[in-house]
Protein: ParB-like nuclease family protein
Amino acid sequence: MKRAADKRPASVNHGFEDDCVTLPIDVILPLRTLCKSAKSSRKYRQIVASIAQIGIVEPPVVVPNPDKSATWLLLDGHLRIEALKDDGVQKVECLVSTDDEAFTYNRQVSSLAPIQEHRMIRKAIERGVPEEKIAAALDLGTRSIQKKIKLLDGISEEAIAILKDKPAAGAVFDALRKMKTLRRSRRPNCWSTPTPTPSPT
Structure:
């Protein structure tokens, strides 16, 4: 009977490029048209308030236009882009998707990954924005913001790299924080040859 071929785990595919890009808003092309009532919605008003308080926390997601022009296609963040236009903003920092299929992106990714949100909140804190303002802009409690700020405390760099663009639940980070790093040097060598016991003479 033949042994089954070894199945090696597939490499992790990241949903976004490592670095954001700052783009003029007029080179970003929306892939859908907003309905007339969009700007009167509660979500749009919340985005406007958030931008006024702390700027963009969740960057729009773009991909280079496949027609080789200098334009970019907007995959996610249509309301944010409209709010920025209404505010007279000329440029915006964007996440660059590694998937150029808009329908695939919209089906698989619906919100900012926790690690990306953590980094954006930390960036706002570094700019001097108070936690209370961030909480009000995101419609969250101050304790929730503090928890997001400390999200990666005690998490290994390897785990952060794997989860940086994944929609992982908060419980995942709590579990990872409790795990200990496996140190090979402390493990007994189970396969070493035992030392022979000298026989009595």
